[in-house]
Write a structure and sequence with these properties.
By secondary structure, this protein is an all-alpha fold. Helix content is about 75%, strand content about 0%. Helix 1 crosses helix 2 and helix 2 runs antiparallel to helix 3. Keywords: Ribonucleoprotein, Ribosomal protein, RNA-binding, rRNA-binding.
């Protein structure tokens, strides 16, 4: 359930510091959030897909670690990103 390249490029241009910036924390958190949303919708339909559920939990943990790091490094940008993505600030 990977993101298609057009959607990924759109996220990179929206949240990246430059057009080719794919490694910054903002971009990584935004990409993970999109993948988590897609997997959540998938699991609403296929309730017994436990392999995908495990992958979802791993993605959530990875995003949580990235958010914790980003909050420590740049709190103002972190709060703006959380508001833009519509996710909770529970770190």
């Amino acid at each position: 359930m990977a993101l298609d390249s057009a959607k990924k490029q759109e996220i990179v241009t929206k949240y990246g510091r430059s057009e080719s910036d794919t490694g910054s924390s903002e971009v990584q958190i935004a990409l993970l959030t999109t993948r988590i949303a897609e997997l959540t919708e998938h699991l609403k339909i296929f309730k017994k897909d436990h392999a995908s559920r495990l992958g979802l939990l791993k993605l959530v943990g990875q995003r949580r670690r990235l958010m914790k790091y980003f909050k420590r490094k740049d709190k103002d940008a972190y709060l703006k990103l959380v508001q833009d993505l519509g996710i909770r600030d529970n770190i």
